[in-house]
Structures are given as C-alpha cells and as structure tokens.
C-alpha cells in the first residue's frame, strides 16, 4: 500500500509539473505579412497603414490569445514594396517562403493585384487597401478589401459633381496606375450617366510634378470641373499649377488626395478642393477617432488609413480564432463569412468576391487647412 500511495503522489507531481511547464512554454509565433510603400513619395501612406496594424497586434497579444489549445503571439513581418509592382511580387514571394499565415496589404492597387496571384497560388489570405475593381474581379478566393472599391467611390463622385454641384463640362486626368485609372474610369461612367460631358481626358504618371502642358490644353476647353485620379504628391502640385494658370475649374479627387499631406503641400491653393473618402466621417465613428488619436500619440502623425488596417488585422485574427486554427486553408472560410464591428464600420462583411458589402462614401471640401464634410452617401 505505501508503494501505491507513493506512485499516486509521483503521478500527481508529474502531472502538475507538466501543466506548469506547458503553461510556461513560450507562445507559438504566428507571422503576418505587411507590405506597402515605406520609402519614397508615398511613404506616409504606408507608415499610417503600418501604425494601425502594429496597434492591432499589440492589442491582440495583450489578451494572451490561445488557438487550438496553444498560446500564440502574433508577429508582424513588414516589407517596403516601394509602390512598385515588380518589387511587390518579390515581397509576396518572400512572405510565401517565410510561411506567413496571412497578409495585410499591399497598399496600392498596382502592387496588390500582381501580388494577389502569388498569395492565391499559395492559399494565403490577403486583405488589401487596393480599391481598383480589377483586384477582386480576378476571382481569387484569398483576396479581400479593407476599403470600398473605386466602382463605389467613383460612381458616387461622378453623380455628385454633375447632379449636386451642377458641373456639366468635365475634364479628367489620371496617373495611369491601377488605382488612379480605375477611379477615373468609374467617375467618367457616372458623370456621363448623370448628364455630364467629358470635354477632355489626359494621362500622366505617378512620378510627375509638371502638369503645365496638360493644364494648358485643358484650359482651352473651359471645363467646369477637373477630376484627378492619383496620389497627393501629384494632386498638390497640380492644384498649385492650376491656380498659377488662373484656372477656375473645380478640382475633385479621391481618398489619396483627402489627406493632411495634401493640405500641407498645396497650402492656401487647396481651399475649395473636393475629395472623397470611404467610410463615415470620423465624428460618426468614435472607434476610428480614438484610434487616430492613439496613432498620433504613439507615432506623431496620423491620417485615415490606420483605422482600416487596424480593422483588417482584427478581422483576420478573429477568423483564426473562429476557426481555432492559424492555418490559411482552415481559417479562410471563416474570413469569407466575417461579421465584425470595427473602428470603421458597425459591420464589416464581404460578398462572394471579397468586396465590402457595406460601403459609405463621404465627400469633403478643403478650407483653411482643414477638411470639412459636405455629404455622406450610405448603403452603396
């Protein structure tokens, strides 16, 4: 009997020891990839996007998450794709080789689209900032958006300019990127459908800063409005050059212009410029406002991409927790069925293509160094 008691005691001690050592074991690392321009003229976009992801993963890790019975810690692998499609595909292949569980990115449509094929072939879920319709039109099951598409945004702005502002004669310029051209294409279709007349369409590139010849040609057509599809590093000098040429046409653009960086670059010339942005105004999304405040306190600067990347990260993590697995093939179906209340929307959900089901577009006007809300179109 004493020997049996001793054996039982030893078993209890051994079991307790195993439980303690298992609890003390370091958490399993779950790698998530992030790619965006982190250097060059678009680095401010990438930095804002990264800030949201960093805060999201910190918030998740503070909760000591457990998946499939194991303690896990999420780790971010950040890459600079330089807003370049070729670099983006190299980055995507590195993420595949590093066996990331998912990717938040890329930022630009022109980088997200070529990278998406690599992720799709590897079965790795991707939630991108890409807004070009072509991103999800490819039919990959692994592609999801963090923001509304250009189809939604361009359509709203085309109708708004012609019907609400009464500006019929329209000139269009785009930077020939997947984003800029896609947004301009959708704007043109909507403007025509609303009764507008396209008097001229011109093209530039995403590195250009001299628009004198394009603007001189457009000025001869006397348009009521000029729509620009592209980034703030081009729309700001475009604005300044319009003012120098004495052009009175209304300048309208998309969310890559509706930034504090644009206001800083364009200065007083920005007054009166109109730009659209996906989502409700920040004052109507308290979670978004609070997150931007956190980003400013932590990183010194913030725009509006951080809340979207924060939500995208949380959506991906939630899908893993729902599937009880960090394996892409296991949690992908749960990601597709996402229903998540986040900083940017009361319900983030995807349709069969990975587009957001609920899209709100807000139109803003620049005035004295600030953006003010003109109108919000909901339920697109």
From TrEMBL:
Upper classification of the organism: Bacteria, Pseudomonadati, Pseudomonadota, Betaproteobacteria, Neisseriales
Q: Which residues form the signal peptide?
A: 1-24
Q: Tell me which family the UniProt entry assigns to this protein.
A: Belongs to the leucine-binding protein family.
Q: Which UniProt keywords apply?
A: Amino-acid transport, Signal, Transport
An individual GO BP term: amino acid transport
The record ties this protein, via Pfam families, to: Peripla_BP_6
The protein depicted here goes by the name Branched-chain amino acid ABC transporter substrate-binding protein
| Domain called Leucine-binding protein: residue spans | 30-369
Q: List, alphabetically, the InterPro entries matched.
A: Leu-bd (IPR028081), Leu_Ile_Val-bd (IPR000709), Peripla_BP_I (IPR028082)
Q: Which SUPFAM superfamilies match?
A: Periplasmic binding protein-like I
């Amino acid at each position: 009997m004493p020997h049996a008691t001793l054996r039982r005691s030893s078993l209890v001690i051994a079991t307790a020891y195993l439980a303690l050592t298992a609890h003390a074991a370091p958490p399993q690392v779950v790698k998530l990839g992030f790619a965006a321009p982190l250097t060059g003229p678009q680095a401010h976009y990438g930095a804002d996007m990264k800030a949201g992801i960093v805060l999201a993963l910190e918030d998740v890790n503070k909760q000591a998450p457990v998946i499939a019975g194991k303690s896990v810690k999420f780790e971010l692998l950040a890459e600079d794709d330089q807003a370049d499609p070729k670099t983006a595909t190299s980055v995507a292949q590195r993420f595949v080789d590093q066996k990331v569980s998912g990717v938040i990115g890329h930022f630009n449509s022109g980088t997200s689209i070529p990278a998406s094929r690599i992720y799709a072939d590897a079965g790795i879920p991707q939630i991108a900032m890409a807004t070009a319709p072509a991103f999800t039109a490819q039919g990959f099951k692994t592609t999801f958006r963090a923001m509304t598409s250009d189809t939604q945004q361009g359509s709203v702005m085309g109708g708004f300019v012609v019907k609400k502002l009464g500006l019929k004669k329209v000139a269009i310029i785009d930077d020939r990127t997947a984003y800029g051209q896609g947004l301009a294409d959708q704007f043109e279709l909507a403007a025509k459908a609303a009764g507008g007349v396209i008097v001229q369409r011109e093209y530039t590139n995403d590195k250009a800063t001299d628009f004198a010849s394009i603007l001189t040609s457009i000025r001869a057509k006397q348009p009521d409005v000029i729509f620009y599809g592209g980034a703030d590093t081009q729309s700001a000098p475009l604005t300044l050059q319009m003012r120098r040429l004495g052009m009175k046409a209304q300048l309208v653009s998309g969310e890559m212009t509706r930034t504090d960086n644009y206001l800083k670059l364009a200065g007083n010339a920005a007054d009166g410029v109109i730009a659209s942005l996906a989502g409700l105004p920040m004052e109507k999304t308290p979670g978004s406002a609070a997150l931007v405040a956190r980003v400013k306190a932590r990183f010194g600067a913030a725009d509006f991409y951080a809340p979207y990347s924060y939500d995208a990260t949380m959506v991906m993590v939630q899908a893993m927790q729902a599937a009880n697995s960090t394996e892409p093939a296991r949690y992908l179906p749960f990601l597709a069925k996402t229903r998540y209340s986040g900083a940017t929307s009361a319900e983030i959900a995807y349709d069969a293509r990975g587009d957001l089901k609920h899209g709100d577009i807000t139109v803003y006007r620049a005035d004295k160094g600030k953006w003010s809300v003109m109108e919000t179109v909901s339920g697109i």
